[in-house]
Amino acid sequence: MKKISSFLILFFALVASIQAFSIVEDSLSLPVIRMLHPTDSIKVTTGLHNSKFLNHTVKQGQTLFSISRYYGLDMMDIINYNPLLSEGVKLGQTLKVPIANTDIKWQQGKHFIKWRMIEVVYIVKPKDTVFKIAKTYFKMPIDSFRMINNKTHDTLEIGDKVIVGWIDIDGIPEKAGVRAWLPITLYTDYKILRKRYVNTQKGKREIDEKGPATWNEKAKGDNLYALHKTAPIGTVLKIMNPLNKRTIYVKVVGKLQGAGYHYDTIIVLSPSVVKALAGVNRNFRVNISYYK
Known about the structure:
292 residues, elongated
Protein backbone atom coordinates (compact mmCIF):
# COMPACT_ATOMS: atom_id res chain seq x y z
CA MET A 1 0.00 0.00 0.00
CA LYS A 2 2.85 2.33 0.89
CA LYS A 3 4.52 1.57 -2.46
CA ILE A 4 1.31 2.50 -4.32
CA SER A 5 1.01 5.76 -2.35
CA SER A 6 4.64 6.63 -3.06
CA PHE A 7 4.13 5.90 -6.75
CA LEU A 8 1.04 8.12 -6.90
CA ILE A 9 2.86 10.96 -5.15
CA LEU A 10 5.73 10.75 -7.63
CA PHE A 11 3.31 10.53 -10.57
CA PHE A 12 1.35 13.63 -9.59
CA ALA A 13 4.58 15.52 -8.81
CA LEU A 14 5.84 14.70 -12.30
CA VAL A 15 2.57 15.84 -13.88
CA ALA A 16 2.71 19.09 -11.91
CA SER A 17 6.30 19.74 -12.98
CA ILE A 18 5.42 19.15 -16.65
CA GLN A 19 2.49 21.57 -16.37
CA ALA A 20 4.69 24.15 -14.68
CA PHE A 21 7.30 23.81 -17.44
CA SER A 22 4.55 24.14 -20.06
CA ILE A 23 3.32 27.36 -18.42
CA VAL A 24 6.84 28.82 -18.40
CA GLU A 25 7.42 27.76 -22.00
CA ASP A 26 4.09 29.27 -23.08
CA SER A 27 4.92 32.52 -21.28
CA LEU A 28 8.09 32.86 -23.33
CA SER A 29 6.08 32.74 -26.55
CA LEU A 30 3.31 35.12 -25.48
CA PRO A 31 2.34 37.77 -28.08
CA VAL A 32 3.47 41.38 -27.77
CA ILE A 33 1.70 43.25 -24.95
CA ARG A 34 -1.34 45.04 -26.37
CA MET A 35 -0.76 48.76 -25.90
CA LEU A 36 -3.99 50.06 -27.44
CA HIS A 37 -7.71 49.19 -27.43
CA PRO A 38 -9.91 48.90 -30.55
CA THR A 39 -11.80 52.02 -29.47
CA ASP A 40 -8.56 54.04 -29.22
CA SER A 41 -7.15 56.34 -31.86
CA ILE A 42 -3.58 57.58 -31.99
CA LYS A 43 -2.38 60.94 -33.26
CA VAL A 44 0.33 61.27 -35.90
CA THR A 45 2.47 64.38 -36.40
CA THR A 46 4.98 65.34 -39.09
CA GLY A 47 8.54 66.61 -38.76
CA LEU A 48 11.64 67.41 -40.80
CA HIS A 49 12.01 65.62 -44.16
CA ASN A 50 8.34 64.59 -43.88
CA SER A 51 9.18 62.27 -40.97
CA LYS A 52 6.22 60.89 -38.99
CA PHE A 53 5.69 60.37 -35.28
CA LEU A 54 2.90 58.66 -33.38
CA ASN A 55 2.04 60.25 -30.03
CA HIS A 56 1.81 57.36 -27.57
CA THR A 57 0.46 58.04 -24.07
CA VAL A 58 2.03 55.76 -21.46
CA LYS A 59 -0.51 53.58 -19.62
CA GLN A 60 -0.31 51.56 -16.40
CA GLY A 61 2.22 48.71 -16.62
CA GLN A 62 3.85 49.90 -19.85
CA THR A 63 7.64 50.18 -20.00
CA LEU A 64 10.08 51.62 -22.51
CA PHE A 65 10.92 48.06 -23.57
CA SER A 66 7.30 46.97 -24.09
CA ILE A 67 6.44 50.19 -25.95
CA SER A 68 9.43 49.96 -28.28
CA ARG A 69 8.70 46.28 -28.92
CA TYR A 70 5.06 47.05 -29.73
CA TYR A 71 6.09 49.57 -32.38
CA GLY A 72 8.82 47.32 -33.84
CA LEU A 73 11.65 49.60 -32.76
CA ASP A 74 14.81 49.57 -30.71
CA MET A 75 14.58 51.50 -27.43
CA MET A 76 17.25 53.91 -28.73
CA ASP A 77 14.89 54.95 -31.55
CA ILE A 78 12.43 56.27 -28.99
CA ILE A 79 15.08 57.68 -26.64
CA ASN A 80 16.56 59.73 -29.52
CA TYR A 81 13.31 61.69 -29.84
CA ASN A 82 12.39 61.80 -26.15
CA PRO A 83 15.39 63.17 -24.18
CA LEU A 84 13.49 63.13 -20.86
CA LEU A 85 13.38 59.32 -21.01
CA SER A 86 16.78 59.30 -19.33
CA GLU A 87 14.68 59.56 -16.16
CA GLY A 88 12.41 56.64 -17.20
CA VAL A 89 8.86 56.52 -18.58
CA LYS A 90 6.05 57.97 -16.47
CA LEU A 91 2.34 57.21 -16.38
CA GLY A 92 0.47 59.63 -18.65
CA GLN A 93 3.62 60.78 -20.44
CA THR A 94 3.30 61.31 -24.22
CA LEU A 95 6.11 59.85 -26.31
CA LYS A 96 7.12 60.61 -29.90
CA VAL A 97 7.37 57.27 -31.70
CA PRO A 98 9.03 57.38 -35.16
CA ILE A 99 7.00 55.65 -37.84
CA ALA A 100 7.18 55.22 -41.64
CA ASN A 101 4.44 55.79 -44.20
CA THR A 102 4.45 52.06 -44.92
CA ASP A 103 3.52 51.33 -41.29
CA ILE A 104 0.21 53.17 -41.71
CA LYS A 105 -2.33 51.12 -43.67
CA TRP A 106 -4.96 53.10 -45.59
CA GLN A 107 -6.19 50.39 -47.96
CA GLN A 108 -9.32 48.53 -46.83
CA GLY A 109 -8.81 45.20 -48.60
CA LYS A 110 -10.57 41.89 -48.03
CA HIS A 111 -8.33 41.14 -45.04
CA PHE A 112 -9.19 44.45 -43.34
CA ILE A 113 -10.93 43.82 -40.00
CA LYS A 114 -12.08 47.10 -38.42
CA TRP A 115 -12.08 45.89 -34.80
CA ARG A 116 -8.44 44.79 -35.15
CA MET A 117 -7.24 48.20 -36.30
CA ILE A 118 -6.35 51.39 -34.46
CA GLU A 119 -7.24 54.65 -36.17
CA VAL A 120 -4.32 56.96 -36.94
CA VAL A 121 -5.54 60.58 -36.93
CA TYR A 122 -3.93 63.80 -38.06
CA ILE A 123 -4.85 67.24 -36.68
CA VAL A 124 -5.29 69.83 -39.44
CA LYS A 125 -2.85 72.76 -39.22
CA PRO A 126 -2.91 76.19 -40.88
CA LYS A 127 -2.30 76.01 -44.67
CA ASP A 128 -3.10 72.28 -44.77
CA THR A 129 -5.18 71.08 -47.70
CA VAL A 130 -6.66 67.71 -48.63
CA PHE A 131 -4.03 67.36 -51.37
CA LYS A 132 -1.18 68.24 -48.99
CA ILE A 133 -2.31 65.83 -46.27
CA ALA A 134 -3.18 62.93 -48.57
CA LYS A 135 -0.55 63.12 -51.31
CA THR A 136 2.36 65.00 -49.75
CA TYR A 137 2.28 63.81 -46.15
CA PHE A 138 0.85 60.29 -46.35
CA LYS A 139 1.31 59.22 -50.00
CA MET A 140 -2.29 58.12 -50.46
CA PRO A 141 -4.82 58.79 -53.25
CA ILE A 142 -7.11 61.74 -52.61
CA ASP A 143 -10.17 59.59 -53.36
CA SER A 144 -9.09 57.13 -50.63
CA PHE A 145 -8.68 60.01 -48.17
CA ARG A 146 -12.17 61.26 -48.98
CA MET A 147 -13.69 57.79 -48.63
CA ILE A 148 -11.98 57.06 -45.30
CA ASN A 149 -13.22 60.36 -43.89
CA ASN A 150 -16.68 60.27 -45.56
CA LYS A 151 -15.94 63.60 -47.24
CA THR A 152 -17.99 64.90 -50.14
CA HIS A 153 -16.01 68.18 -50.23
CA ASP A 154 -12.42 69.29 -49.60
CA THR A 155 -13.11 71.91 -46.94
CA LEU A 156 -10.91 71.61 -43.85
CA GLU A 157 -10.96 73.54 -40.59
CA ILE A 158 -7.89 74.10 -38.40
CA GLY A 159 -8.04 71.58 -35.57
CA ASP A 160 -10.11 69.01 -37.50
CA LYS A 161 -9.23 65.36 -36.86
CA VAL A 162 -8.89 63.39 -40.07
CA ILE A 163 -8.17 59.68 -40.42
CA VAL A 164 -5.05 58.89 -42.45
CA GLY A 165 -5.04 55.12 -41.92
CA TRP A 166 -4.70 52.41 -39.30
CA ILE A 167 -2.11 50.31 -37.48
CA ASP A 168 -2.75 46.73 -36.36
CA ILE A 169 -3.95 46.29 -32.80
CA ASP A 170 -1.02 43.92 -32.16
CA GLY A 171 1.47 46.58 -33.13
CA ILE A 172 4.01 47.03 -35.91
CA PRO A 173 6.37 44.21 -36.97
CA GLU A 174 10.03 44.79 -36.22
CA LYS A 175 11.83 46.87 -38.86
CA ALA A 176 8.64 47.46 -40.84
CA GLY A 177 9.50 50.55 -42.86
CA VAL A 178 11.88 52.05 -40.29
CA ARG A 179 15.24 50.46 -39.51
CA ALA A 180 15.07 49.32 -35.89
CA TRP A 181 18.12 51.37 -34.85
CA LEU A 182 18.28 54.13 -37.46
CA PRO A 183 16.23 57.32 -36.91
CA ILE A 184 13.73 57.79 -39.71
CA THR A 185 15.10 61.28 -40.48
CA LEU A 186 18.35 59.63 -41.63
CA TYR A 187 16.84 56.77 -43.59
CA THR A 188 16.56 58.51 -46.98
CA ASP A 189 20.18 59.72 -46.87
CA TYR A 190 21.26 56.28 -45.69
CA LYS A 191 19.70 54.60 -48.74
CA ILE A 192 21.22 57.16 -51.13
CA LEU A 193 24.73 56.78 -49.68
CA ARG A 194 24.49 52.99 -49.55
CA LYS A 195 23.58 52.93 -53.25
CA ARG A 196 26.47 55.25 -54.10
CA TYR A 197 28.87 53.06 -52.13
CA VAL A 198 27.78 49.92 -54.01
CA ASN A 199 27.98 51.69 -57.38
CA THR A 200 31.54 52.97 -56.82
CA GLN A 201 33.13 49.60 -56.10
CA LYS A 202 33.47 48.55 -59.76
CA GLY A 203 37.11 48.55 -60.90
CA LYS A 204 38.40 50.10 -57.68
CA ARG A 205 40.44 48.82 -54.75
CA GLU A 206 38.78 48.50 -51.34
CA ILE A 207 40.58 50.17 -48.44
CA ASP A 208 39.99 48.83 -44.90
CA GLU A 209 40.92 50.66 -41.71
CA LYS A 210 40.37 50.14 -37.99
CA GLY A 211 40.79 52.65 -35.20
CA PRO A 212 39.24 55.21 -32.83
CA ALA A 213 36.45 57.51 -33.99
CA THR A 214 35.29 60.65 -32.26
CA TRP A 215 32.75 63.44 -32.83
CA ASN A 216 32.23 67.15 -32.41
CA GLU A 217 29.73 67.64 -29.59
CA LYS A 218 28.91 71.17 -30.77
CA ALA A 219 27.88 70.09 -34.27
CA LYS A 220 24.16 70.16 -35.04
CA GLY A 221 21.80 68.67 -37.63
CA ASP A 222 20.81 65.21 -38.82
CA ASN A 223 23.52 64.52 -41.37
CA LEU A 224 25.61 61.49 -42.33
CA TYR A 225 29.05 63.02 -42.74
CA ALA A 226 32.65 62.60 -41.58
CA LEU A 227 36.14 64.10 -41.59
CA HIS A 228 38.84 61.68 -42.75
CA LYS A 229 42.63 61.93 -43.08
CA THR A 230 43.17 60.45 -46.53
CA ALA A 231 39.85 59.74 -48.32
CA PRO A 232 39.03 62.45 -50.90
CA ILE A 233 36.17 64.83 -50.16
CA GLY A 234 32.93 63.34 -51.52
CA THR A 235 33.99 59.73 -50.86
CA VAL A 236 31.34 57.48 -49.31
CA LEU A 237 32.63 55.45 -46.37
CA LYS A 238 31.08 52.35 -44.81
CA ILE A 239 31.39 52.58 -41.02
CA MET A 240 30.75 49.65 -38.69
CA ASN A 241 30.72 49.48 -34.90
CA PRO A 242 32.32 46.04 -34.26
CA LEU A 243 30.62 45.75 -30.85
CA ASN A 244 27.07 45.65 -32.21
CA LYS A 245 27.69 45.19 -35.98
CA ARG A 246 25.68 48.30 -36.82
CA THR A 247 26.75 49.63 -40.23
CA ILE A 248 26.12 53.04 -41.71
CA TYR A 249 27.31 55.01 -44.73
CA VAL A 250 28.72 58.55 -44.52
CA LYS A 251 30.07 61.18 -46.89
CA VAL A 252 33.51 62.73 -46.41
CA VAL A 253 33.06 66.52 -46.23
CA GLY A 254 36.55 67.54 -45.16
CA LYS A 255 40.07 66.57 -44.14
CA LEU A 256 40.78 65.50 -40.58
CA GLN A 257 43.40 67.81 -39.11
CA GLY A 258 45.40 66.52 -36.17
CA ALA A 259 44.94 69.60 -33.99
CA GLY A 260 42.19 69.25 -31.40
CA TYR A 261 41.92 65.44 -31.62
CA HIS A 262 43.79 62.52 -30.11
CA TYR A 263 46.84 61.53 -32.17
CA ASP A 264 45.46 58.10 -33.19
CA THR A 265 41.93 59.25 -34.13
CA ILE A 266 41.23 58.10 -37.70
CA ILE A 267 37.83 59.70 -38.29
CA VAL A 268 35.51 62.40 -36.92
CA LEU A 269 31.81 61.57 -37.26
CA SER A 270 28.69 63.71 -37.06
CA PRO A 271 26.74 63.31 -33.77
CA SER A 272 23.81 61.68 -35.60
CA VAL A 273 26.14 58.96 -36.96
CA VAL A 274 27.51 58.30 -33.47
CA LYS A 275 23.97 57.95 -32.09
CA ALA A 276 23.02 55.52 -34.85
CA LEU A 277 26.12 53.42 -34.20
CA ALA A 278 25.46 53.57 -30.44
CA GLY A 279 28.93 54.95 -29.73
CA VAL A 280 29.27 55.45 -25.99
CA ASN A 281 32.83 56.50 -25.24
CA ARG A 282 34.32 59.79 -26.45
CA ASN A 283 36.65 57.66 -28.61
CA PHE A 284 35.14 54.37 -29.74
CA ARG A 285 36.58 51.95 -32.26
CA VAL A 286 35.14 51.52 -35.74
CA ASN A 287 35.87 49.58 -38.92
CA ILE A 288 36.02 51.67 -42.09
CA SER A 289 35.82 50.59 -45.72
CA TYR A 290 35.89 52.65 -48.91
CA TYR A 291 36.90 52.35 -52.56
CA LYS A 292 39.81 54.20 -54.13
